[in-house]
Amino acid sequence: MALALPLIAPKMGRGMTAVVLIAMASCLINPIWHLGIVRRARTGSTRNWRFAGILLIALTSIGLFGAYVWPAVRRHTLTEKERASFENALKSQKGEDLEIQLACPPNDERVCTFAGQFINLVGDSGWKVQSYVTRITLSRPFDGVMIYRRGGNRDYLLQHYDAGGYFNINEPHLLAIQKAFQSIQIEPSGGTNPDIPENVMMVYFGPERENEAELTDLTRSTEWATGKREGPFPGKRRLALCRWLGLLCG
């Protein structure tokens, strides 16, 4: 079972994986108690200490193994608790002055269906939101959830593979949207798009990432800009100006 767990854990889900790990830990108690090094102890106190020490090592090993095989959260229809967490994160910031547009790839019905459930969540949180999901084709395809703001030069972007734009990572609207997705264990990325208006924030849903909760450049950059992360700027360009202005430069 232990050897197969890395393969079957994603299919079983977190609940069943936890049950299996607990069962594995329970099955170790009796064998450890009957180990020679435990049974040969001269006193009961020594026997108990040896048993506790070996058991602690075994449980720690199972804990590390559990962290390795622990399945990532897959995209799904949000639960009531998740919907409430998402809405509460947005309600902390007023969004009437900005329109949220949701977008997905043109031929991926599964992704577009997942994106569609966020229309009501954003609208019910008091934000202005487009009433449908736009199907678009990006010049640079991305997976996961991507937050776009206006920026960059279209002609320059099409001619240079490493071109980018300035992205305000201190913007309250951006931080609120990011926090909302983080509340449902999704770490969004961020970037600029020269084709969207200034008063629009586009949230693009690409193909599902292997682990949607894995940290992105946007996560590291906003943590750095808000003082939660120390060290040099984690983005592509590490200019002092970027931190002073709260910009993701790249």
Could you please describe the fold and organization of this structure?
It is a single chain. The protein is an alpha/beta fold and 250 residues long. The chain folds into 2 domains: 65 residues; 170 residues, no CATH class. Helices cover 47% and strands 14% of the residues. The chain has 10 helices and 7 strands. The strands form 2 sheets. A 5-stranded mixed beta sheet has the order 2-1-6-3-5. The C terminus is likely disordered.
- Helix percent reads 40-55%
Q: Which sequence of strands runs across the widest sheet?
A: 2-1-6-3-5
Helix-strand string: HHHHEHHEEHEHEEHHE
> What is the total number of structural domains?
2
Shape: elongated
Biggest sheet descriptor: 5 strands, mixed
- Extract low-pLDDT stretches: 237-250
SS class = alpha/beta
Strand content: 5-15%
User: How far is the N terminus from the C terminus?
Assistant: 46 Å
Radius of gyration: 24 Å
Count of strand segments? 7
Number of DSSP helical runs: 10
**What is the residue-mean pLDDT, rounded to a whole number?**
81
Protein traits:
alpha/beta, 7 strands, five-stranded mixed beta sheet, disordered C terminus, 250 residues, 2 domains, elongated, two-stranded antiparallel sheet, 14% strand, 10 helices
Helices and strands, with pairings:
Layout: H1 5-33, H2 36-39, H3 44-69, H4 80-91, E1 99-104, H5 109-116, H6 118-124, E2 128-135, E3 145-149, H7 154-159, E4 166-168, H8 172-182, E5 189-192, E6 200-205, H9 217-225, H10 240-245, E7 247-249
Parallel strand pairs: 1-2, 1-6, 3-5
Antiparallel strand pairs: 3-6, 4-7
Helix pairs in contact: 1-3, 4-8
